[in-house]
Design brief:
- The structure is a single chain.
- This protein is an alpha+beta fold.
- Helices cover 20% and strands 31% of the residues.
- α8 crosses α14.
- It has an 8-stranded mixed sheet, with helices on both faces. Strands 21, 23, 24, 26, 29 and 31 form a 6-stranded antiparallel sheet that branches.
- β15 and β16 form a beta hairpin.
- The relative contact order is 0.07.
- The chain contains 15 helices and 38 strands.
- It has 5 domains: 59 residues, Metallocarboxypeptidase-like (Alpha-Beta Plaits); 325 residues, 3-Layer(aba) Sandwich (Aminopeptidase), CATH 3.40.630; 88 residues, Immunoglobulins (Immunoglobulin-like); 153 residues, Sandwich (Jelly Rolls); 88 residues, Macroglobulin (MG2) domain (Immunoglobulin-like, Sandwich).
Length: 809
Amino acid sequence: MRYVKVSPRYVPILMWLVGLSCALIAFTTVQAQNLSALPAQERSLKHSQVRVYITDRSDILALAQAGLILDHIDYRGTYFDAVLDNEELAILKKTGRRHEVLVDDLEAAYRQRPKMSGAELNALKAQTSTLYTTPSNFHYGSMGGYLTFAEVVAELDDMRALYPNLISVRQSLGLSIESRDLWMVKISDNPDTDEEEQEILYTALHHAREPQSMATVIYFMWYMLENYGSDPTVTNLVDNRELYFVPVVNPDGYVYNQQTNPSGGGMWRKNRRNNGSSYGVDLNRNYGYRWGYDNSGSSPTPSSTTYRGAAPFSEPETQVMRDFALSRQFRMANNFHAHGNLLIFPWGFIGNFYTPDHSSYVAWGQDMTQFNNYLDGTANQTVGYLVNGEANDWLYGEQIQKGKVFGFTTEVGTSTDGFWPTQARIIPLADENVYPNLVLAAGVSDLTPPIIANVQATNVTSSGALITWDTDETSNSVVEYGLTTGYGSRAGDTAENATYVTSHGVALNSLTANTLYHYRVLSTDPMGNTTTSDDYTFQTPVSLWQVITFDNFESGMGSYTDGGADMSRYTGGATNAHQGVAAADIQDNSGTASSFYHTASYNVTGYTTLEVDFWFKMVSMETNEDFWVQFFDGTTWRTVATFARAGSIANNTFYHQVVTISSATYNFPTNAKLRFMCDASDNNDDVYIDEIEFRGMTGGALAKGGNALSATEALPEKFALQQNYPNPFNPTTNIRFELPAEAQVKLAVYDMLGQEVAQLVNGVKPAGAHSVLFNGAALASGIYYYRFEVQSPAQAKKFVEVRKMALVR
C-alpha cells in the first residue's frame, strides 16, 4: 500500500472534504431508504406536460367520467395543456383522445434549470420591476428560490421580532398527519388582542407542489408590515382589520417535495396519508360541503391526484382548518394556489349554477383582477372542470355552524410558469397579487344586519305551521324550531337556494299534534350580516283526523280485494313501487276485473270529510286513458275522481294525489268502501297505485296538512287568494287561500304563454284557510301566474283570482 504525504496546511481542507463526502453519502443513503420504502406506485410516478385535443368543454367532462379527473388545465378552445402522471397518461391513452407530450419528465426539466447564487438572487431582486415597492425583508429561499417549510417558520419568527406590535407570535392550529404544525399568525394593530374587527383569512400550499402560493402570501405579509404607518391604505386596513395567515396548510407534502427534490421541482401534490397501496389525500377535495358530490369533481381512487379521502374532513389538516374557521368570524378568505392566472369563486361542485351572492362575487372579482387581468368566475367558467369537497364551497356553503364566508381561490401564474415558476418570476407574480389582497382585506362594506319585525305563526294545524316575518332589507329566510329553546330543527333557505326578500314565510311540516313549539327566525343579508329574533311559541291543535285504513301492499293486499284477472299485486321492486317493493297494479277496462276494492265496509257516519291520499304511476297509457277513484255511499258506487293520461300527467312518473269526499256532497253510510278501477284499452296499459291512506275528519274544517280551524277560530268572511310566500322564491313557495264555505276549488300555475305547468288543487275543499306548497324545481327562472277558481253554492258567480310570482334560480 502506498501512502501520500500531505502538507499540514491542507489538512483542514481535507477534513472538510471528508466531512462533506460523509454528509452527502449519508443524505444519499437516507434518500434511497426513503424512496425504497415507498410503494411501487409512488416510486414510479413521472409527470409530463401533455396537450390534449378536444372539440369543446364537454370533452373535459367525458374524460372525467372515463376516470381522468383533471387539475390545473390551460384551456385553449380546441385543446388544453395539463400535467399528468404516468397513470393518468395511461388512462388518457385508453380513451383514444388525440394528444401529444410536450415535456416528458417535468421534474428532470426542473433539475436542469440553471441555479442562481445568492449574489445573483440579490441582484435579480433589485432589478425586478414591480407595481408595488418590493419589501426589503422578502428574500428567496433555498429550494429553487422558494422557502422550505423550516424557512417559512423562521420567516414568521423574523416578522414577529421586527414588528412585535403588528404581528402575533406564530401559533399552532394543530398537527398534520405526520405531526407537523400548521402555523398561523395574525397581522393587526393589536395583534395579541381579539378585537371586534372584520376577520380575513389567507392560506397557501393546500397542494404541496404549488410553492408560489406561499411566496405570494409571504410577500404580501412583508408588504403590509413594512408599509404600515407610511401607506394610508395599509395603515387603515391594519388598524381596522384582523388579517389571519396560514402559509402552509400541507406541511408534510411540502417537506416531502424538499426531501425528493431539494432544489425544487417536486411534483407531490397531496398530503402524506398512507392509503395502503398509495399515499395521499387531496386536501382541497376533502372539505365537507358537497364532498363526493360526484366522481368528476373528485376521485374515489386512492392513487388519483384528486383522491377525496375516505370521508369528509377525514384528514387532520382539513379538520384543523375547519375548526379554526368555526372558532373565528371570517368574512372573506383567499386560498392561494398555482397556476392559471385565475380568480375562482363558488360554486365549484356544479356547473352553471350560481350562489345567491353571485352578483357580489362578480363585482369583487372584476375589482380584484382589474390590474393583473386574471380570469374570474366559477370553476366551470375558469378552469373548465368541476371540483367538489373544495375549501371555498365549504367556507361559503356551510352556514349552520358558522356564518357565510366569501371565499376565493387565486391560481397564481400562467401555464408557462407551471407549478414551480422560475426564480425570476417569483417576485412579479407575488407583486401582481398585492392589489387583490388589499381589496380582500377591505372586507365587507355593509356591516349592518337586517331588522326583524312582525314575527308570527299563522295557519297552525295539527301537523304544520307557516312562520312569517318582515325585514328592513332583503335577506334570506330561516326558522329554527323545537320543543325547547335549544330548537334542534331547521327549515327555510340553504346556501344553495337562498332567496333575498323583505317579506318572509317558511312552512314547518311534520309537526306533532297538541304540542307546544318554540321557534325563532334568522335572516342574513347578501353581505353575510345575520339577525336572530327572540324566542316565540305556538301550540299545534289536537288532530281531528283519524286513519281508517292504510295500505302499502308490502305484505299482501291488506284492506283490499283483488277484483279479477286484470288486477295484480306488483312485487318487482322500486321501479313501479313508490315506497318499498310492492304496489297495486290495474290494467285494461274489464270493469270489476280491472279494479281492487275494500274487502270490509266502514262506518263513516261520524265524519264530516273523508280523504283518499295515494301515489300513482301510469305506464304505457295512451292519451286520455284513465282510472277512477270510486266511493260506495251505501247504495251506489260513485266516481269521486278521474285521472287521465293527458296534460300534466305523463307516463313513467309517480304523482301524489289527495281526493276529498265531503258529507255535503255524498252520503256517508255505515258501510262505505273505496274502489280503484282502470279504464284503459288493453292489458299492456298499467296503473300502479301505492301508499293509500283512507282517513276521516271527526269535526272542524281542515284538510290534513292544510290549515286547521280550531273550535275557537272564525271562518273566513270571503273567498280570497293571498300572495305567495316567499316571493321571489327558489324553488318552493307557499300559496294560501281562504274559503268561507265548502267549495269546488281549482288552483293551477301557468307560464307566460298561458300554458298550465302545475295543478295544485282540483277538488272539493272544506271551509277554512288553506296553504299549498308549490315546488318549481323542474321549471326555469321566470314569471309565473297562479289562478284560483272557486265554484260554491254560497256564491252565485264563479270566483276567479290570478296573482303573479317570480321563480329565481
